[in-house]
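User: Predict the complex.
Assistant: Input components as received:
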Amino acid sequence: MAAFRSTERYIASRDLEVAVNAAIALQRPLLVKGEPGTGKTVLAHEVARSLGYRLIDWHIKSTTKAQHGLYEYDAVARLRDGQLGDPRVHDIANYIVRGKLWEAFESPDPVVVLIDEVDKADIEFPNDLLLELDRMQFHVYETRQTVVAKRRPIVIITSNNEKELPDAFLRRCFFHYIRFPDRETMERIVQAHYPDLRKDLVREALNVFFQIREVPGLKKKPATSELLDWLKLLMVEDLPPEALRAKEGKLIIPPLYGALLKNEQDVHLFERLAFLSRRAGA
Amino acid sequence: MFATFILALRQAGLPVSLTEYLTLLGAMKARVAAYDLDDFYYLSRAALVKDERHLDRFDRIFGEVFRGLERPPGAPEGEIPEEWLRLVAEKVLTPEEMARIEALGGFEALMETLRRRLAEQEGRHQGGSKWIGTGGTSPFGAYGYNPEGVRIGQDGSRHRRAVKVWDRREFRDLDDDVEIGTRNMKIALRRLRRFAREGAATELDMPGTIRSTAHNAGTLDLRLVPERRNAVKVLLLLDIGGSMDDHVRISSELFSAARSEFKHLVHFYFHNCPYERLWRSNRRRRDETVPTAEVLRTYGPDYKLVIVGDASMSPYEITQVGGSVEHWNEESGRAWLERLTGHFRRSAWLNPVPQDFWGHTRSIGMVGEIMEGRMFPLTLRGLDDMARELVR
């Protein structure tokens, strides 16, 4: 049985490994939730990479219907062909457009299907996929054929919790909540992404980063992806670690903070706090 | 195999079903977690818990059911045996008191004190028993009773690595009975959304077009439908001032969440109990009031009425003519409440007072009766229940 482990590029905690392996072993979907920027989407990419499977990425939007993942009947094209007298019009199968799930079910090699941000879709969306994900098959009404998965794909579903998912859907999934990594894990993650980054710079950067996360009242706390972006910027600018060092635990405004704070109100709040802290120290 | 565990989880209110139990057993059989308690904990969590709000409760039950499973023979020393604490607790506190302390969640402070004192005690290395005997009965009592408190002394203790993971209870914030933020509220309120097609027909109705084109034997016949919009209408009445001062933060959070969630949201303020006049803005409440009768006339029965208030007042303010603390009311609060609930097809009362306290205030019971039991605590769970009730 293929098993998933942390790779050199993606540091997974033990509980995440167990959850992914359970989903692989029982061929059930894995539902992943967590703060934005903690690597939910990247997880699917890494699972596919480490198992050597192909990844089929189905990105969900508010207008996505479950049917889009299975197939669509392009009625307009057929109508046009019909009016132009195209001979293709006699076979309805010419106008069936395959969706991502069909593609995954038909694939002779094992694949990983990522259903990204499932909560963005309509409330009924997960319900409409119950049977398809459970049995890994569906029926094409127009051509009266049943598509059955040749090999059950590994399905990874991510959610940002904007909508609650129905119980019947949840029953069929394994669930994992990605917690925000602690400092130790964070160091490993940074190490994995930028192996040649200077140790002292990482230390100072993490100090600043965790300090910012602890500022009360931030609307959007910076997460792993923000940290990685920021470090990249620091590397590009070639800043010395001294630029990040705060004096006696005081709050400083870090250089290039735009990568960490994405919200105007947060920036204001932070500037005010830094100002107060500077004044208190003076 | 783990039937006790599953039953304990169900008893604690986690929605665990047979399907999930079988999934867990299946995964065990497939050797996903073999001979390792940590892995088993992770696996059972992934299989049985489907909502991060339940993670904390799961941790607690897991700790209780599998307690001591991997305790090494030489159990940690220098820590206060929990049975002992429990004994002290049972001696000092009545079961009601314990339940109350637990329900109030006032353990944070206690925990801090305990941690500090423990550190103190360790530093001095002298008679721990004496220290407990004198200083600590009440805090420790509470502590000993609480399943979470018992183990705090072992926080970071080197010996019980396996138990530590769930004992840390990192998911406490996510428990739905405890914390509530605007974002979470919005999600809870979203249950109320109801989409309907209203207004001008601007969207191409594909199935309709195809159907009518087919009917026309292939001559194109375009059909349009109005766009789907959230059509739910909410009338929010907020209690303000007096005893509500304690709940200002949560009420304003609810208000801002509701405002961004509903397009048709109307709000009014009242004090303690709605009477014949309501007002829109608190600054000008003396001179700009709206007669309640006008509100009833303006907003149709299809509005969903949500009253937010602690319902804590003198019973006279509900039952008596002239009972209001602020003015002379010609009709009792009860009459106005019944008029409101009678007019709107769906109504509910949200109460920021913790539910365990409702029994202590008579007026809460009375209002609850007038609302025919549709009073919900202002927690995520309460909002959820309310939303369910309102869309029924």
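The domain at 14-178 of chain A is CATH 3.40.50.300 (Rossmann fold).
Let me know if you want any component modeled separately.
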